[in-house]
Every structure is written in structure tokens, then in C-alpha cells.
Amino acid sequence: xxxxxxxxxxxxxLLTLAAGLTGCSPASEGEMRGTLAGPAPVLAxxxxxxxxxPAAGSWSTTWEACFDPSPGEEHLERWExxxxxxxxxxxxxxxxxxxxxxxxxxxxxxxAPADDPGRTAALADAASLGYQARGVRSDGSVTPWSEPxxxxxxx
Length: 155
Prior knowledge:
The chain contains 2 helices and 8 strands. The chain is α+β, with helices and mostly antiparallel strands.
């Protein structure tokens, strides 16, 4: 799994993204690769999950955003994802294994993540990062990019 899809936290994801944003433009290489056709994918779900390991005395918070094809686009060959920040859109396009982006946004000691101020701060940092997904058909044509989904959002 790539750094954009599974990181140690929002800071690591933002550093990876910042390196990729150098020289980005509205029509990046990944954007022009295939013929654009059809409707964009839609957000199916976005969730935050807290996992607590009492034996280790630690917790982690993971965010997952899953996309669905629009009606009539059910036979996509694969999915791609790219990161978005206030500075722009990353020119780096990653193949998405499945249709979900997953990031570990926070982790810490203890067994009560909801009460941890570090979790609150990490979720606030994550809100500066978003993702877009698109589908790729067997003929190489692509759907438009989805609307950006903010890391840490739920819905």
C-alpha cells in the first residue's frame, strides 16, 4: 500500500503530498492519460473508527472513505485516487486497491481515545487533506474525478 493510502498520520500524508505538489498544474499528467467520459464517482461512506488495545494500553483512529460508481458505470476495471490540499491537487495518481481510501489519523497511549487531546489535534490537522477518486474502464477511458472528501469527515 502506498504512503498516500496508508500513512502513520496526517503529518506523514501531508509531507508526502507536499513533495508531490511541486510543479503541479490544473491539467496534470494523470489527468490527461485517458479519455474523460461519463459521470464522476460518488462518496458511498466515510467513517472514523477507534480501535483500542487494552493489553497494549493503546488506541488508534482510522478514517475510511469509500466510493461508488454512478449508475451505468458499474463495470469499472479499477479505481484511482489523488490527494487535494489548499495548495492544489497532487499530480501523483495512485491506483486504489478496491474502492476505499484508508488512513490511520491518530494513535496514542491509554484506552479512551475520545478524551485524548492528541486525537482532537490530529483530526483537526487531517482536515487540511482531501481525496478524490475516479474510475478507469477496460478501454483506458476514465470517469471525471469525484468531489474532494476531507480526511476525517464522516458521512
